[in-house]
## 1
Amino acid sequence: MPRTIWSGAISFGLVTVPINVVSATEDHSIHFHQYHLEDMGRIRTRKVCEIEDREVSQSEIGKGYELTKTQVIPITDEELRDLPLPTAKAIEIEAFVPLESVDPIRIGEGYYLQPAGQVAAKPYKLLRQALERSSKVAVAKYAWSGRERLGLLRVREDAIVLHAMRWPDEIRDPTELLPPPVELSEGEIEGALALMESMTREDLEGEEFQDSYTEAVAKIIESKREDRPLPEAPEPKEQGQLLDLMAALQESVRKAQASRGESGTADADIHDLEPKKTAAAKKRAKKTPAKKTADTGDAKNATAAKKTAKKTAARRPRSA
């Protein structure tokens, strides 16, 4: 059972839903400690008071705001909990919006909201079903860890999930990171769409979406524990220089189809790869057979002229 991170209530108009907040995710990564390589002694971080030059315990440590190098204002956890804000003890829903209207870059860590006791069961279910039926999400304010935050409430199966949200001024402007202006052909865009289609999935299940890094680290630890040779690193994939974008797209489509056991060629999926013939080119193509006919007629006329010349020469009287 995950531990409770925060307790309070969801404020939904005049409806109050007592809730407990628990983490919605788990960390399965392998974590390391720091050691002294000479004797493998554990390296630890100790908290030392700079004035007394001694290590202090956690019970002696509190928060403070530094006004100047010599003046610090102490702030207690109790003072932060008793802030004169409605969001200090409640998640205040401010609005309901379509999920598509929220930029995903603003959405952060997720938490499950658990109804706190039987009294919360009915209003909790009411809010969950209202969110589900409306196909909208709720945007709320709440205060944790010494700051007020925005949050997004949505439905996941039978639970309500709270996502931390970033304030608008916390999102950096990407303008200065954009590439210089370039031109794309319609064929290149069609090729990219064909590649996307060949890589489309209905879900995110499969070995492609497993944590290969953690598995590889676990194999290294197991090999060293049993004094066996370390697993060999796979050969890195060749990253050839991109010379022909269309060729790269076609090859990518072929590989994606092959990995999914599909037959066919990329040429069948990527349309309009060759420039379309212009009207002038089509006219020239139509005129070509006529030219050949004209050439054939000229040859026949030349042959007939030669025969006539021979007959005329045969009829002429021979000179003495």
## 2
Amino acid sequence: MRNLGTFGIYTFDFEHQPAARVRDSVQELEHLGWRAVWFPEVGGREALTQAGYLLSCTERLHVVNGIAQIWSREAGATQAASALLADAYPGRHVLGLGFGGARRPGVKPLAAMAGYLDELDTHAKESSYPAPRTPVRRVLAAYGPKMVALARDRSAGAHTYHVNTAHTAQAREILGPDAFLGVEHAVLFEPDPGKARATAREHLHPYLNTPYNLAKFRRLGYTDGEIAHGGSDRLVDDLVFWGDVDTVADKLRAHVRAGADHVAVQVIGTETGGSAMPHWRRLAEALLPQQA
């Protein structure tokens, strides 16, 4: 997993662009020197189909589902698709799994994920298709200590989303020195504090109003007062790094110092259907010369 490099790109952009534009974008990212692209599954394009398309458009780029929702497809379909990608593109696909998809009332995230992993492993053992010579690589979306421990024990490691550097240090302690830790972090190239925080609050609004995210923020020490009304300045500044490119780059490196193996950078503030490519170019100049 260390071959993803220290920094990568996390983007929702490809959900809203035609295939030809996605192809051109991902090829430019590869040309710029980015080693990894992460993308979510949010009810738009199907996660593993999109991963296959991005892999087919590039030669070296690592493509990471961040995440594929476990209830959007049966475990057998997930295992078969990820095995094909591992066989066709050895070492270039990472199956990131997370609790999501069609809701199943009463089922807790930890139990749901453990059960899904059991099914994946069973299908892998009993499948009739050829096993890939390079195994499927998987990571789990994880925030709470028990899910992080599950990621350590049942996958290559953990993928976190919208957390602060303190959480990164806590996750590393649970994971130990060997398991992979990939951290997404949102950034915004806006030097004006008022404008930056207004855009950040708009971006954070859904996450400040969902139960699992609220539990995560409370565990990190944010009070209900800080979470309410769009989030306090402290919370907003911790979750969205804003400013000029050098300021943003320095803040991103704090996750590496706290124990992250890889930081997936999500540029916010672009219009739906637009592209963050100009910002990805600037970030490549600031971050990639030092990439491990």
## 3
Amino acid sequence: MKVPAEQTTDAASWWLIGAMGILCLLVSADLGFYVRAASVLPLGIGLLTLIAGMVIGSRTGRPRLSAGATAFLQMTLFTVIGVVLAYALAARAGPLWDDSFAAWDVALGFDWPAVFAAADRSPVMLWIGGLAYHSLTLQMIVAIVVLSATDRADTLRIAVAAAILGGFATIAISGIVPALGNVFDPAAYHILWPSVAWIERDMILGLRDGSWRMIDLTQLMGIVSFPSYHATLPVILAWAQRDVRGWRFVAPVWAGVTILATPVFGGHYGVDVLAGLIMAVLALSVAPWMARRRIGWRGNLPTTASHVG
């Protein structure tokens, strides 16, 4: 019996990036955004370096280099385009959904004042959670390096496709249900860090009223509240490293601490995190199909005797 042989391809991720780019141009048209000139050069150098690594790896027969550079290039482009798209969607968004999200959290039993007060009394846990939350970029870098170095290019392509698909979806949804986030005043606590939502609240309001229009490509800030990408991406990265010795234990623990810390340090509602986890499951369900390609047939060839008669 013949069995279809399958491999993965980067095409799905490139198509998603292209679709995000087109949508970004359409949504940001006439909004008056401008890029800080000094921020273009560092990004350009980084992109050219990754392109060079991808080309060199491909032409010199070094698939691990090519796979790693391609993944880094795709995630970098996704991040830049995705953040600008989120800015543009925020600038065009309708009424804020914070009251609804807060009410849903209460209905689900989330008591955030109690959680924040407990965190304020636990300096060790506070530092562990804070470092985990703010390490999401590092988690992505480690996953790409580990998967490419261990020659798991197929898994890496699926993970990147899932990360981009999940991120694209969260950004698009955020434009439909915009929110400032579960903002709390850090001045009311002793050691609790200001959440990202607290730090970014003026920026989001500025995007909405038109007073914030400069884009610094070296300081892009994620402003998506619902669903939480800090809940989506760690799950995808942990899944991708499930078969890597050592990292099969480290990655899920790292991801779990990140997700638990997300409401405190990201200023996310509980429903943001739950929606982000659902998004991770959906993205990982679709990404393998998106990244798959058929490369022909292989299997048991019929013998000469089978042709007789």
